[in-house]
Design a protein that fits this description.
Elements: H1 2-45, H2 52-59, H3 63-75, H4 87-103, H5 113-121, E1 126-130, E2 145-149, E3 154-158, E4 167-171, H6 176-186, E5 199-205, E6 211-218, E7 225-227, E8 230-242, E9 248-261, E10 270-276, E11 284-294, E12 300-302, E13 305-309
Antiparallel strand pairs: 1-2, 2-3, 3-4, 5-6, 6-10, 7-8, 8-9, 8-11, 11-12, 11-13
Helix pairs in contact: 1-3, 4-5
Length: 310
């Protein structure tokens, strides 16, 4: 009897242990599937604002590092890191929600042309709707169409298939390629600006063969403030250098002043800042997260891209 009782107990323990292993495996598998789903959903949701370099780098990352990338993706776009909110992220997803409420018809509103324009360019200043098509004043189309007026330009969307899914047909910016250029500019701040602050950067070696970060900032779109005999603009620069495994290689955050004398007749088109890295960077491919912000403005520009150190 005791032996039978012992065998029964062993069987129960074995079955119970097997259940724990199966449940643990299922949980691990489920967590991995959820992570893949969340990561895939990330690329879908940010398709309007993610750069080609960002997308390519993200897809090649180990799965366990993708969450870190997502966090950095939003952090570099946060105009005010001192607040608990990420205003850029909140605005982006609020616009997706608004687009779904306003433009959903044959497909989800945020995936339509009007949805994309609303998300990237913001709400128009005012809208003219022509549900019956052309009128005596403006016989643009026999199909229903809508004219979105912004401060400097307008867009015309036409319901060519009569299914409620309006497509961009015309803009006073020029052809559709110009609209796409406006969308590209808007990616950097969720609104279209004719004079978007421009900058670029590269890693170089100076005469002492030390690594330096070179920032080139376009002065055309900078608003300078008067300071005695000089005109001054102060910027906050952020820079993060990551390797293929998303390990931190070098980071930098500091303010810089750009100034020139009021007596200067010719203001340079570009001003260059050289920042020493203080360490040697091995040859290879790296990903850079960078942002540039005027200290007295909320607008924040960011440029994230792959670079090669030779």
């Amino acid at each position: 009897m005791k032996r039978n009782h012992f065998n029964t107990t062993v069987k129960i323990i074995a079955v119970f242990s097997l259940m724990i292993i199966v449940l643990g495996t299922n949980t691990l598998f489920s967590n991995k599937m959820n992570q893949k789903s969340n990561n895939s959903d990330f690329l879908t949701k940010v398709q309007y604002i993610i750069s080609k370099d960002e997308e390519k780098f993200y897809k090649n990352l180990p799965e366990e590092k993708q969450e870190e990338f997502i966090q950095q993706f939003w952090d570099i776009r946060d105009p005010d890191p001192d607040t608990p909110e990420n205003e850029f992220k909140e605005e982006y997803f609020n616009r997706i929600d608004d687009a779904n409420k306003q433009f959903t018809a044959a497909r989800e509103g945020w995936l339509t042309d009007r949805g994309k324009a609303y998300i990237l360019l913001g709400p128009p200043n005012y809208v003219e709707n022509y549900p019956m098509g052309g009128n005596p004043i403006n016989n643009f189309s026999r199909n229903p169409y809508s004219v979105w007026h912004y401060i400097d330009f307008y867009l015309i969307f036409v319901d060519n298939r009569n299914d409620g899914d309006y497509q961009i047909q015309y803009t006073d910016l020029g052809n559709i390629a110009d609209v796409q250029e406006a969308f590209q500019k808007a990616k950097m701040g969720l609104k279209y600006l004719d004079k978007k602050l421009g900058y670029n950067f590269e890693l170089k070696r100076n005469k002492q063969k030390s690594n330096i970060l070179v920032f080139s900032i376009e002065t055309e779109s900078i608003t300078f403030a008067s300071d005695g005999d000089n005109m001054v603009a102060e910027f906050q620069i952020q820079f993060k250098l990551k390797n293929k495994s998303f390990d931190d290689i070098w980071s930098y955050s500091n303010s810089h002043s750009i100034h020139f004398a009021k007596s200067d007749i010719h203001v340079p088109k570009k001003i260059t800042l050289e920042i020493p890295l203080g360490k040697e960077i091995p040859k290879g491919s790296y990903f850079c997260f960078t942002s540039l912000k005027r200290s007295d403005e909320k607008e924040k520009m960011f440029l994230n891209k792959m670079i090669k150190v030779k």
